[in-house]
Amino acid sequence: MTPSNLPDHTDLPEPSPHDIAAAAAGDREAFRRIVERYQGMVYTMAYNLLGNHVDAEDASQEAFLRLHQKLGGFRGSSTFTTWFFRLALNAIIDYQRRFRKYGALPDVPEPVADPVAEVLRRDGYARVMRALADLPPDYRLPLVLRDLYGLRYGEISDALDRPLGTVKACVHRGRTSLRLRLQAGGGLDEEA
Fold it and tell me: In this predicted structure, what is the pLDDT of residue 19?
């Protein structure tokens, strides 16, 4: 579960400045093109943070509603993809806080249909997802953002509005707890 195992949000082609301006001005077709370009990124991020398909779909929808509301505020000080990634991440975190969806998964859902999910499935996808879902949210969120999405500690600190030292400690404790949970379930070497 390293950042290189997941599609990199920075690899997505940027929408044209014309599409961004048109969508901000209310052009539905331009907005639809932006949604289609980013829906996979947003859904995958929501699923990895929330742990189930229903919440991932709801949180994704909220992220795109927030995009619709804030698109006029995009100033171009960063790439659109980076700006929207952070906006979507905040929408997903707000969704989680609002609905308090921290519990374990009721059933192990089918993984997201992509090559990465196939690799994870072969390597114990269900077991890893259960172990992640069992982590306290204070550990799970920073761990997923660091190890699955490759965000730097400072970015995680900003996104979660937590001190940098707290984020580092939560990632470390989350890794340790995840390793112990996976070892207790069997099939993980002691040196992993």
Answer: 92
**3-class DSSP state for residue 175?**
helix
112-192 maps to CATH 3.40.50.1000:
no
> Per-domain residue ranges for the chain?
14-101, 112-192
Between CA 128 and CA 35 the distance in angstroms is 29
Nearest-angstrom CA–CA distance, 96 and 93: 5
pTM for the model stands at 0.66
Dihedrals φ, ψ of 90, to 5°?
A: -65, -40
Based on its alpha-carbon atoms, the radius of gyration of the chain, rounded to whole angstroms, reads: 17
Reading phi first (left if > 0) and then psi (alpha if -120 to 50, else beta), residue 186 is in: left
Q: How many C-beta atoms lie closer than 10 Å to residue 170's C-beta?
A: 23
Closest by Cα among 65, 68, 82 to 24: 68
Query: Which numeric CATH code is attached to 14-101?
Result: 1.10.1740.10
- Summarised one tens digit per residue, pLDDT across range 12-71 is 789 999 999 999 999 999 999 999 999 999 998 898 888 788 999 999 999 999 999 999
Q: How many helices (H) and strands (E) does the chain have?
A: 9, 0
CA trace torsion 168, 45, 64, 66 (10° rounding): -10
